[in-house]
Design goal:
The structure holds 2 protein chains of 2 kinds. By secondary structure, chain A is of the alpha/beta class. Chain A folds into 2 domains: 153 residues, Rossmann fold (3-Layer(aba) Sandwich); 106 residues, Nitrogenase molybdenum iron protein domain (Rossmann fold, 3-Layer(aba) Sandwich). In chain A, 42% of the residues lie in helices and 15% in strands. In chain A, strands 2-1-3-4 form a 4-stranded parallel beta sheet, covered by helices on one side. Chain A has a 4-stranded parallel beta sheet with strand order 8-7-9-10. Chain A has a two-stranded antiparallel sheet with strand order 5-6. In chain A, helix 6 runs parallel beside helix 10. The N and C termini of chain A lie far apart (77 Å). Chain B is α+β, with helices and mostly antiparallel strands. Chain B has one domain: Immunoglobulin-like. Chain B has 3 helices and 7 strands; from the N terminus they run ααβββββββα. The longest helix of chain B has 10 residues. Chain B is globular. Classes of the chains: A alpha/beta, B alpha+beta. At the A-B interface, helix 4, strand 5, strand 6 and helix 8 of A face helix 1, helix 2, strand 7 and helix 3 of B.
Amino acid sequence: MPLLRPFLAVVLTLLAANPVAAQDRSRVVAVNYPLQYFAERLAGDEAEVIFPVPADVDPSFWRPSIADISTIQSADLILLNGAGFATWVDRVSLPRAKVVNSTAAIEDQFIRTESITHSHGDGDEHSHEGLASYTWLDPILAIAQAEAVAAAITARGIAPDDAVATRLDALRADLAELDRQATGAFDGMQDIAMIATHPRYQYLAQRYGLSISSLEWEAGAMPTEAEQADLVALAAQTGAQVLIWEAAPPAEAFAVAAELGLANIVFPTLAQGVDDQTYIQAIANALTAISEAKP
Amino acid sequence: MIRAIALASICAVAPMGAAAHQLTVFAATNCEMVTVEAKFSNGNPVMLADVRVLDGNNTLLLTLPINEDGTVAIPLDSVDHSGGLVIEVDTGSHDNYWIVTPDDIARSCQS
């Protein structure tokens, strides 16, 4: 008993010094890495931010398990990207009061796309309209998403209003700096045709007036001979001078593109995070690469 | 060839994906049964499809044909739903799924 009292005093002192550890933190679920990054910056230590998709899985097409959905349903806040991103969100029941669509305020800026043409049974051929989903690659749209995340965190009392406001100001400034950097990096490139290895850059292209045609290559993989032939044909058709890779491929793949006169640029799409780089760092690095490789 | 590439680029633009919006599957639980509804994105009900019911370990519990109105009812006492259920609808050319968690079922029994 004489030993217990000082022990308790130490424990109470530690808990008082770290109130966050003394209570359960709020749990926030994000459907992609950018929203995870925004939520972590905005909520600070006041929340545990979970991005449940395994690192080797494309979050757009992740199929969660029942246990995953149970975890998500029990979160305090569920951050959706909107714009059709993450197909699983339409295949489960999510508690409406906890769900926030981070692009709800910018739906008027969505880019609509035509999808596959096909028929059902004896029905006529038809096609479905889709939406480009990688909104966060446009720093201005990313600011709107960050603001939506901040509002959601504040509304649910996950972190103090003034702390969230201060963090949002800093995040907004970082995103505005990315926009400034992008404006400079893409200056003069509006008349230069580019090809992307995957159709992910629609919002980036729209913001900076770029012309980007797309292939459908697997990220980070060596393109097959047929895919290389597609590149040759598309480069000839468009007169492209730049090839944008969503992930670095083998060196041989860079050489193939270089032989066609294409400048190789890796611009991660960031639905998943990139090792050792934050969202801001990854985009800033890609923009630096564009500035240096500009034809 | 170029047209094919251009089409490929258009088709793959939306991560919502081709398969994602062609067939819509929804399942509602009322404590006694799970009612599954499947329709195409043009609103037409799915008239011919297999409905597979899997448990939380992805073990197939049951396969049923869908009714002509695009629905099928699965009595909860006919399957072990303690770990939740995954409902898959497969028309042969399209497939999609709906996840029912243990909490979904528990909530339906409270209301």
